[in-house]
Amino acid sequence: MITLSKPCWADLAILGGKPAFTTPLNVGTPNVGDRRALYARLDDMLDRRWLSNDGQYVRELEHRIQGFLGVKHCMAVCNATVALEIAVRAAGLSGEVILPSFTFIATAHAVEWQGLTPVFCDVDPTTHCLDPRAVESAISPRTSGIIGVHTWGRPCAIDALTRIADERGLTLLFDAAHAFGCSHGQTMIGNFGLAEVFSFHATKLLNTFEGGAVATNDDALAAKIRLMRNFGFAGYDNVVSPGTNGKMNEASAAMGLTNLESIDEFIEANRRNYHAYERYLRDLPAFHMLPYDEVERSNFQYEIVELNDSALDLTRDQLIKILHAENVLARRYFFPGCHRMEPYRTRFPGAAALLPNTEQVASRVVALPTGAAVSEVDVETVCGILRTVVDNQRILCRRLSGATWPRSKE
Ligand code: T4K
Q1: What is the DSSP letter of 164?
Q2: pLDDT, tens digit, for every residue of 301-326?
Q3: Of 52, 101, 273, 329, which has the fewest Cβ atoms less than 10 A away?
Q4: How far is CA 296 from the centre of its chain?
Q5: What pLDDT shows up at residue 409?
Q6: Distance between CA atoms of residues 171 and 160, nearest Å
Q7: Which segments of 2-123 are extended strands (E)?
Q8: Helix 316-325 to helix 376-391 angle, to the nearest 10 degrees?
Q9: DSSP state, 338?
Q10: What are 24-83's pLDDT values in tens digits?
């Protein structure tokens, strides 16, 4: 049973009613662990006057993550974008790298930034992850690697991609920005391919304010990444490889250690919200919630609904505007797809025709707010708005056609 926050369509904020939320309900409100533990670590850090450069907290965070993932090496980095760039470089990729267009722009930019060519490949419309058959047909003599993305924290087709990479002699990396705390079977994400990259950005399950990490079981790669993340320095005054400044600072590591201590609570809050959304939206055919496979470990970090055109007269973007007017800042990740953003749009003008599933998924997806800062009552309120919209869509279409929609961020 759901208590409708907007029992009447005329109460909707887009039509002049009061917004359901007085402050914005964001997708990606940061999870924050025990503040006292954080402040104690920050005090200790300031007392010791060691703020960056492979400090005690960075080492401790890396060690804890290795244990959590059951992986040999974890290298903390300043953010996942730089971590991807370093991983691509350290893995020796060259020429073309196959990756999905349906991903955050950082996946493509990390490849392009290294002077390589991203080759955009279509996704499976049911999982939103790379379609292995499309990957096989995108391989050319210039292909050196594949980057699979565990979109929304759901493992991509790891086994099929591993087989393809092995058979074709390609390097396989994973962008696991969304997948910290998730598993494939009984094995934690972080153990697959040559290396996997996590994001610890403020909006992620585990945040270090800004941050990321590379996980690998390959000793040689780990050694290279450690060098490259610190300008290639192997001791004082001795630079042995090209490198960049990818170091994580101590305040970020302190935040990471503190949040890692609360990770079970964060996942539990996401799981509770996922089940609440599922319960409230189950009987609305206009929305299809992407399911999580609860046999595997999951972080339930993204609540993703796909709109069913045949049961909804409003467009996805109209729905987003209705939600934004209510202060529900739902997002249309990853619209419009990397292939429609620069420099790729200009460079590959025909890409859209090769990516029909990407085009379709990018036009239908809505990411809804979740996280430890979003309560079950908040979820009920959001779903109440969605129900009112669906129940009154004909009249809403009439009332809103020609109306000036409020400006949204996008
Ligand atoms: N690969 C993939 C597949 C990724 O999704 C990402 C990042 C990366 C690689 C690269 O990781 P990093 O280099 O960032 O570590 C957000 C995040 O900024 C980005 O990290 C994330 N993916 C992406 C999916 O979402 P935007 O452009 O939506 O960010 P923004 O600033 O709009 O933040 C989202 C919402 O979160 C805001 O509307 C408000 C809320 N928010 C945000 C911050 C920073 C807060 O409430 N508090 C905050 O402190 O990209």
Answers
A1: H
A2: 999 999 998 899 899 999 999 999 99
A3: 52
A4: 18
A5: 38
A6: 14
A7: 25-26, 73-77, 96-100, 117-121
A8: 130
A9: G
A10: 999 999 999 999 999 999 999 999 999 999 999 999 999 999 999 999 999 999 999 999
What is the distance of C-alpha 23 from the center of its chain? 24
Helices assigned H by DSSP within 195-262: 219-229, 250-260
How far does Cα 128 stand from its chain's mean position? Answer: 12
H-helix or E-strand containing 173? strand 171-175
pLDDT, position 408: 40
Answer whether residue 404 shows pLDDT above 60: no
Structure tokens at 134: 């499309």
Distances (CA, A) of 18 to 12, 207, 307: 7, 33, 26
Q: Which atom of ligand 1 is nearest to the CA of 211?
A: 15
Q: What is the pLDDT of residues 234-282, one digit of tens each?
A: 999 999 999 999 999 999 999 999 999 999 999 999 999 999 999 999 9
Conformation bin of residue 303: beta by default, left when phi > 0, alpha when psi is -120 to 50: beta
- Residue carrying the six token digits 């991203």: 118
| Mean pLDDT over the full length of the chain | 95
Which amino acid residue places its CA nearest to atom 41 of ligand 1? 29
Residues with C-beta less than 6 Å from any ligand 1 atom = 26-30, 79-81, 103-104, 106-107, 149, 175, 177-178, 199, 201-203, 212, 329, 333
Nearest Cα residue to atom 27 of ligand 1: 104
Residue 218 corresponds to which amino acid?
A: D
CA separation for the pair 128, 138 (Å, rounded)? 18
